[in-house]
Amino acid sequence: xxxxxxxxxxxxxxxxxxxxxxxxxxxxxxxxxxxxxxxxxxxxxxxxxxxxxxxxxxxxxxxxxxxxxxxxxxxxxxxxxxxxxxxxxxxxxxxxxxxxxxxxxxxxxxxxxxxxxxxxxxxxxxxxxxxxxxxxxxxxxxxxxxxxxxxxxxxxxxxxxxxxxxxxxxxxxxxxxxxxxxxxxxxxxxxxxxxxxxxxxxxxxxxxxxxxxxxxxxxxxxxxxxxxxxxxxxxxxxxxxxxxxxxxxxxxxxxxxxxxxxxxxxxxxxxxxxxxxxxxxxxxxxxxxxxxxxxxxxxxxxxxxxxxxxxxxxxxxxxxxxxxxxxxxxxxxxxxxxxxxxxxxxxxxxxxxxxxxxxxxxxxxxxxxxxxxxxxxxxxx
Length: 381
What we know:
Keywords: Membrane, Transmembrane, Transmembrane helix
Membrane topology: Multi-pass membrane protein
Order of helices and strands: HHHHHHHHEEHHHHHHHHH
Subcellular location: Membrane
Protein name: DUF300-domain-containing protein
Shape: globular
Pfam families: Solute_trans_a
């Protein structure tokens, strides 16, 4: 979103004083007419807060129903753990959209939270695609082929092309947290300056860094799909990807359009909306209104019905939710690497069970998942 605003400001800025002294953060004109009620006794801000809160609750209920269905039919923990994490992006985005509308003055502190939720979803999606590939007829050969590299101890390292994909996606988790933290700190000490593109302020550097790490993560996920399209297409991977990534993408597009409208004075404070209502509240309000629709789309893209095909749950709902919320497997992927994934998968096949990305023996609530057999081959999720 900052990238869109940055580009729009660069195209539209004509402030001569700012151009002469780029070390001074320009003061934005926040003046406007006196605010009057928008609906009944409610101002626009109160009305938008109530609506965005209602949309957040509705989005949560829709997604929670799908999550409960997965938790009650937890027959494939490896896949369903990742699916639940992806589904949780909707209530995460809806909640923070509501917070930004409600506390619009704190919008700059909260807006980067969306990227952290997206980072978790992208990492979970990577592991979900890996399991789809490893569950196919070719298994690990489909993922690595003959390109794995022998180490001195006789073990194998994953090929460089897959290592790049692996770490390009997973880097987005820590970097999104760094971006969020850096934004909060620089805003607090008044060196962020969202109204300037000058290199003297943190905004431009954070925005460029965010653009780079986000692009790397998205392209890496798409690269894996493109390289194994023949296997992944049957799982409707593209639909699944855009069902959740569309949340952030559409929000960025809308923010870009609104930034242009604000920059050329088409959108100005009115008797209903203050400057902060327009700049911070309006983009998040639109996103909040869209979240119930995204909740329906993502629920249709990740149904629980394929996991009911004659298979019994291997764990209860509480264990399913615990495993999904415990993201230590995503964090440990930095250390374990992709080849460990395959070794776990091979061990799982020998044990006639699914590969344990997290649920190794001794893990709380562990149960042996079902075998990769005909039921998994028939499953088209």
